[in-house]
Amino acid sequence: MSEPLPRRVAVIGAGTMGAGIGLSFALAGATTSVVSRSETTLARARHQIDSSLALLLEHDRVTHAQAAAAAARIVLSTELPGAVDGAGLVVESIIEELDAKQRVLTEVSSLAPAHAIIATNTSSLPLDTLARSVTQPQRFAGMHWFNPPELVELVELAPAPHTAPTTMERLLAWSLAAGKRPVRIARPVPGLIANRLQYALMREAYALVSAGVCDFDAIDTAVTAGLGPRWAAIGPIESMDLAGLDVHLAVAGALFPTLNGAHDAPDVVRDAVQQGRLGAKSGEGLRGSYDEARIAAIARRRAQSLLGATQPERAAVDQRAPYPAS
């Protein structure tokens, strides 16, 4: 499946996700407007975009000409009407609050061209509810990206109740054209795929720490030195196929009854939030204190890992379009 990206793309929201989504489309050749009501937010978005392009240059993922062309394609704006005018795709990526998203989607659907596809970057809010804010709901769907969007390949595509098949097909084609590896979800559930998998692991991680089995450092090491690299290469299902399903069955039968099944958020996280320890944003989190230097070092380590990873040879990867020079 191949279809060129729309000539114009609009991304509503200029936070970490919005800026990265905008950069992804600009790298793929689309003129992209990134919208925020705050000039301060737009300034941070520009800094993020410039920093991401510098990393891509450092790792030879783009040339200087490609980076300059991508930067020139990005328009940062506080004016929603002008940003969506003529756009073939509008991606809403504001704060994860239902009312706020509904207000923005209502406004976007009244301003965007009738042919434009409107997508929301959410994995937790109900698509059927959000779709009610969009005129012609057949053109609306979920398009869930991952942080940092310009580096992580996965995009989850999920239909709302009235989403047209052609809408899903075009989002799939456009994701591939933007260099992503999309997964199409047949029936949306809260969290979609990746967050449900992630939070199942997180629930067990908190249970292990709470039971005194290990500390948070051990949890992170078990994933970064073991599960993460292995699953990045072949995935959990292929891992079980290689291990042998008879072995998998025996271990699952022994472990499943012992795994944590809590329905409430973990006390250790609830206590941290109540004490104002919100992680890097507040300077203190589950893994200790965070200053600007530590945050920058972690972000850089993550980016270097994502940029340096060897990608498996899959059909979806083969269909990715190269970044254009202009």
Describe it.
With 326 residues, this protein is of the alpha/beta class. The protein has 2 domains: 8-192 and 312-318, NAD(P)-binding Rossmann-like Domain (Rossmann fold, 3-Layer(aba) Sandwich); 194-290, Orthogonal Bundle (N-(1-d-carboxylethyl)-l-norvaline Dehydrogenase, domain 2), CATH 1.10.1040. Helices cover 50% and strands 13% of the residues. It contains 13 helices and 10 strands. It has helices at 16-27, 39-58, 64-73, 80-84, 98-111, 127-131, 165-177, 194-210, 216-243, 245-255, 267-274, 292-308, 315-318; strands at residues 8-12, 31-35, 74-77, 89-92, 117-120, 140-144, 154-159, 181-184, 284-285, 288-289. The strands form 2 sheets. The protein has an 8-stranded mixed β-sheet with strand order 3-2-1-4-5-6-7-8, with helices on both faces. Helix 1 (16-27) crosses helix 2 (39-58). The radius of gyration is 21 Å and the shape is globular. The two termini are 23 Å apart. The model is unreliable at 310-322 (pLDDT under 50).
Q: Strands across the major sheet, in which order? A: 3-2-1-4-5-6-7-8
Order of helices and strands: EHEHHEHEHEHEEHEHHHHEEHH
* Overall tally of domains: 2
Just give the CATH class of the largest domain: Alpha Beta
pLDDT < 50 runs, ≥5 residues? 310-322
Question: How many E strands?
Answer: 10
Q: What is the CATH superfamily classification of the largest domain?
A: NAD(P)-binding Rossmann-like Domain
Span of the ends, CA to CA: 23 Å
CATH architecture of the largest domain: 3-Layer(aba) Sandwich
Outline type? globular
Query: Helicity range of the residues?
Result: 40-55%
Mean pLDDT, to the nearest integer, reads 93
Largest sheet: 8 strands, mixed
Summing up helix and strand content along with how strands pair, one would put the structural category as alpha/beta
Our count of helices gives 13
- What's the alpha carbon Rg, rounded to whole Å? 21 Å
CATH topology type of the largest domain: Rossmann fold
